[in-house]
Amino acid sequence: MQLDRTHLKIRTRTISELGDLALVMLRRYPGAFGVAFLVGALPWILIDFALLAWIPIRENEIGLTDTEAVPELLRYAAWMATLVFLQAPMAGVATTFYLGQAVFEEKPTYADVWRACRKRFWRWFWVLGWIRLPMLAVVLLCFRFGQPVDGFYDGFLPFCFLVPALAVRASRPFMPEILLLEQCPIRSEQPHGLTAAKRSTRLHVPLSAELNGRFVVIGIVFVGLVASLYYTLDSAASLLSGNAAAGTLWPLLVFYPAALWMIAAVSVLIRLLVYLDSRIRLEGWDVELAIRAEQIRQFGIVDARAVARQEVTPVARQEVTPVARQGTLAGARQPVQAEGPSAANSVNITSGATTA
Fold first, then answer.
1. For residues 324 and 34, what is the distance between their CA atoms, to the nearest angstrom?
2. Cα separations (Å) of 123 from 116, 166, 213, 245, 286?
3. Neighbours of 330 (CB within 10 A)
4. What is the distance between the alpha carbons of residues 319 and 256, in angstroms, rounded to a whole number?
5. What is the distance between the alpha carbons of residues 104 and 329, in angstroms, rounded to a whole number?
6. What does the pLDDT look like over 214-234, one tens digit per residue?
7. Angstrom distances, CA of residue 252 to CA of 74, 249, 293
8. How far apart (Å, rounded) are the C-alpha atoms in residues 29 and 99?
């Protein structure tokens, strides 16, 4: 591990550059999405299917194109989109940890990823599963199984879940990274210890306006991508089968959830990249990594923060130590000797470099 020779160039980026970098990451780490995200999302895909698939299946008996089926199909579409939106952070915990390690390590193993996610399961499951509402939505839909469409339960309640979830995800999106990569506890044993809530406030509040603006722009793009993927899958199925897929169960049961989950996987990657960019803008994380790497080269395989307390001047100590206490990505928590050049096949985006 080499703190100043990462597989991604640690620098500030615009929102368009983050989109370009996301495409590079998708190509560079397909396993993070083809394996890690799929394994994390599979339980939720099955749960959503069990809770909602009966709606289009029942309506198919009278005809999906019948006008009486429209309210039920709108109910299905609204609840499916709500569930996927709420469950995406939980489904992406393994992908988040994998990519956080991959910034510093060439090939993080899936065994280490699963072990780390299991070790912190109750921490992230409580925050991402209950406090951020997806489990409450699942429990509600369990009681609505087999019931006819209702304006309050199927029209008003989805907005009651979406509106607060949108507000929280827009202003405080980085809770998965705080819990998994920075490993901040929910409660601290020390009176003034750094908890996940305190860390979230320090990271999000100074950048709240920019985070909200980016969330709106990215959300609009994602809505368009979901529609594009859905109609692409529908058209491809029609061409391959020789029959129009419209009016059948396949688009509703397979293509629509598939489009939602594919964009959910991309949203996990985009959130991680925005998290890295936010830390660089707010904390000078790129400078911290360079300083720590140089300390390791000078003093060998030791705790760079201990060396900083003993060797560097008080001014330098004030610049380095507070940021280090807040934690870096999981891969940078245990510094080791940095030797030799970086891997030849590492991803290094260098265009238009600016630093915090």
1. 33
2. 12, 22, 29, 43, 28
3. 22
4. 50
5. 9
6. 999 999 999 999 999 999 998
7. 11, 5, 52
8. 8
Maximum alpha-carbon separation in the chain: 78
What's the CA gap between 96 and 100, in Å, rounded?
Answer: 6
3-state secondary structure of 146: coil
CB distance 130 to 86 below 8 Å: no
Report how far residue 3's alpha carbon sits from residue 23's, in angstroms, rounded to the nearest whole number.
Answer: 24
Tokens 């060998």: give the residue: 300
Global confidence as pTM: 0.81
Residue listed under structure tokens 């008080």: 314
How far is it, in rounded angstroms, from Cα 319 to Cα 331?
22
Cα–Cα distance for residue pair 245/235, rounded to 1 Å: 8
The residue among 81, 115, 85 whose CA lies nearest residue 97 is 115
User: Which long-range contacts link 81-84 to residues 24+ away (Cβ below 8 Å)?
Assistant: 81/260, 82/137, 82/158, 82/161, 82/162, 83/44, 83/48, 83/51, 83/52, 83/134, 83/137, 83/138, 83/141, 84/44, 84/48, 84/257, 84/260, 84/261, 84/264
pLDDT in tens, 249-273: 888 999 999 999 999 999 999 999 9
Alpha-carbon span 54 to 38, nearest angstrom: 23
